[in-house]
Amino acid sequence: MLALRVASRRSVFLYSLVSALFQTSLSKIRKMSQECKFVQVRSPSSTTPTSADIQGIPGPIEVTDEVLYANAHPSMSHMSPDFASVFGNCLRMTRQVLYSKNAQPFLIAGSGTLGWDQVSANLVEPGENALVLHSGYFADSFADCLQTYGANVDQVKAEVGDAVKESDVETALKSKKYKIVTVTHVDTSTAVLSNIKGVAEVARRVSPDTLVVVDGVCSVASEEIRMDDWGIDVVLTASQKGLGTPPGLSILVASQRAIKVYENRKTPVTSYYASWKKWLPIMNAYERNGAAYFATPPVNLIYAYHASLQQIIQGSVSLEDRFKAHKEASRRVKHAAAALGLRCVPLSEDVSANGMTAIYFPDGLAASDVIPRLLKKGVVVAGGLHASIKDKYFRIGHMGATAVDTKRGDIDRVINALNETLAEAKASKA
Amino acid sequence: MLALRVASRRSVFLYSLVSALFQTSLSKIRKMSQECKFVQVRSPSSTTPTSADIQGIPGPIEVTDEVLYANAHPSMSHMSPDFASVFGNCLRMTRQVLYSKNAQPFLIAGSGTLGWDQVSANLVEPGENALVLHSGYFADSFADCLQTYGANVDQVKAEVGDAVKESDVETALKSKKYKIVTVTHVDTSTAVLSNIKGVAEVARRVSPDTLVVVDGVCSVASEEIRMDDWGIDVVLTASQKGLGTPPGLSILVASQRAIKVYENRKTPVTSYYASWKKWLPIMNAYERNGAAYFATPPVNLIYAYHASLQQIIQGSVSLEDRFKAHKEASRRVKHAAAALGLRCVPLSEDVSANGMTAIYFPDGLAASDVIPRLLKKGVVVAGGLHASIKDKYFRIGHMGATAVDTKRGDIDRVINALNETLAEAKASKA
């Protein structure tokens, strides 16, 4: 019924807008015809001791000028053909980032967290079982969300710094019938990388009906994910990490198998805003470069996401090389930390993320010795987050432009700041 | 427990960022020090027949250059003191727009629709009664949302073009115990204005425990709302209408009475992303200009909202004069329509919105005769939306800068385009 209502509404929205020209002009002489490039400028840290030039946090990450410029697009109707075409491109390019041919993307105004609600409300019915693989803080939150919607949740917990072993996943999946298994690809609290390909392989082999749900908030576009080849059913993420866009967009991609499970559910979806019943006709309309209405999409952010996807999918660096660039940036940061005698939170290279690094403070130094000094050098990093070790480590993000556009020199700057900071901090204690 | 976890986490986020300088520079000569004003330019409609210069739709509305510029703010950490202070200001200024001293604002990444989920999930427990006053399309949607979360919903429906009469509200409220009564201040489908002050007065008098919930998506900052004086418990809205910001921000303000009702609920909140249990500690932290984490806020959009609120609250036009400007713009558009012999959807001036106008096509003309012609003249309007009359009328938005900044000449342009369009359309049928 909704689909019909939407379709009939769309037919009377006869908007047609020009591709809005968008130029900046010289303020003094008001010559509107003269263009002037849009460039973000931060204050140089050398002259402003408290300035911070690099968002070296695991999101929101540094975004390119082109993306910011697109985020300042003049107002456009969400029902206009121009916007519909941009939205349609975003759906298709999102699919490409995940190497999927026919999975269903959902682009909805919201934080990454809304992806958990989408999974919990649409794919799991009250009383059904969910298996959560725990490699850090965000598994607890996903479990909390699933329980809110009535799921029975079991967690398999890895020790801090490790991912859940595939053998443990196999044991758990054989013990009980699970509707879904969730795995955090990169847990932002620990920088632990899980082997989602391995988890999916185990699930397909020992519990083929269980849907494999990947929390890819801190991994999409910084770590390789091959949804179709690996048999992954859901990847949920957000705009402000590897996808290089300001925050505010919940991005979820569901396999057709997952969509069928949703379509065959026996009980109604228990969320309104996160309901695929509402959003599926909308995404289908935009996919056909048409427009449909359930709730007003974040128009400007969609333009910004489009600009970033174009850089990711159609830019000078291929998607494969983008993953390599993240590995190289990661290798450099982790090598620098090791050269300083610092230990990372992930227990081995196999479980180490490529888009961020979590580093224990050395003996005798604390957050207050390290983080403010990095800040003075223009590098913003994040403190600890995992409850059991939160005061003992800090986190550096190196995703998107920071990892891929080596001309920026972000990684050099992070490493230099780290070297200088550790030397100063140790000297201050001597 | 969450509050504790959040508090402890916050303490280790020791970010401190400079107020990011943000300048544009001349691209040709790369003189970064020379400033260049950020101005949005649209193509003149005279040279491009398909161009559209004015978003004359009831949202997303035209936004100012300063707001767009703020939306292009370089990446900032959501945990930084700079951002926290901006977020805190947004909370305080949101309260000011509604003339409230101590109501609780929630600013969450999402569409306006998410406000319905917040009300339905936090304030109404499954099996409780909700009364929905129907003055158009959006009441049906709000009712649908309430039912999704288990409420028993009764609707009192006004005839098309009218608001529900206070006597009918009184009868309904006396017939049954209702947890909440909802009223759409301006229904975007009909441009009908409801007397929310009157509804609140009736509720307080005959059913004092019933919470009065105002859907103010199409009214906040374009129509006067005095939350405290009028005894309103919830106002929910979105960023892209009277508040003059790009879409993507769900804005809800709850009275302390409503917060108490939420705190005293017997059953757990049945949404995760819309749960005030999650968001209340976050809003409290930002109110104190600190930061806390549940889900990453839409950082850039908060900067944009801040810029718009500064113009609304601290700009050269007072809030009172802003409402007057909307009335004047509305009077001009409606007068022009009347002079053309056109009839508005609202049945009387008393129930006519000031931020938009819904106009029936004259006999013999249809959407296809009018809307494309307006588009050619650079005025984007919206088609019909209310199911029973949707092909018979169109809608013009005149909120925010379009109504208040008369130097823009938007209203003149809309009226001229309307006059020319009707003359041409009639001539083509002669």
Give the topology, please:
Two copies of one chain form a homodimer.
Chain A: H1 2-12, E1 52-55, H2 65-71, H3 81-97, E2 104-109, H4 113-122, E3 129-134, H5 137-148, E4 152-157, H6 166-175, E5 180-184, E6 186-187, E7 192-193, H7 196-206, E8 211-215, H8 227-230, E9 234-238, E10 249-254, H9 256-263, H10 276-287, H11 299-314, H12 319-339, E11 356-360, H13 367-376, E12 378-380, E13 382-383, E14 393-397, H14 401-404, H15 410-429
Parallel strand pairs in A: 1-12, 3-4, 3-5, 5-8, 8-9
Antiparallel strand pairs in A: 2-10, 6-7, 9-10, 11-14, 13-14
Helix pairs in contact in A: 2-11, 3-10, 3-11, 4-5, 6-7, 12-15, 13-15
Question: What does the model show?
Answer:
Two copies of one chain form a homodimer. Chain A has 430 residues and is of the alpha/beta class. Chain A has two domains: 66-314, 3-Layer(aba) Sandwich (Aspartate Aminotransferase, domain 2); 319-428, Aspartate Aminotransferase, domain 1 (Alpha-Beta Complex), CATH 3.90.1150.10. Chain A contains 15 helices and 14 strands. The first copy, chain A, has helices at residues 2-12, 65-71, 81-97, 113-122, 137-148, 166-175, 196-206, 227-230, 256-263, 276-287, 299-314, 319-339, 367-376, 401-404, 410-429; strands at 52-55, 104-109, 129-134, 152-157, 180-184, 186-187, 192-193, 211-215, 234-238, 249-254, 356-360, 378-380, 382-383, 393-397. In chain A, the strands form four sheets. The first copy, chain A, has a seven-stranded mixed sheet with strand order 2-10-9-8-5-3-4, with helices on both faces. In chain A, a hairpin with a 4-residue loop joins β6 and β7. Chain A starts with a helix and ends with a helix. Residues 1-35 and 43-52 of chain A have low confidence and may be disordered. Chains A and B meet through α1, α2, α4, α5 and α11 of A and α1, α2, α4, α5 and α11 of B.
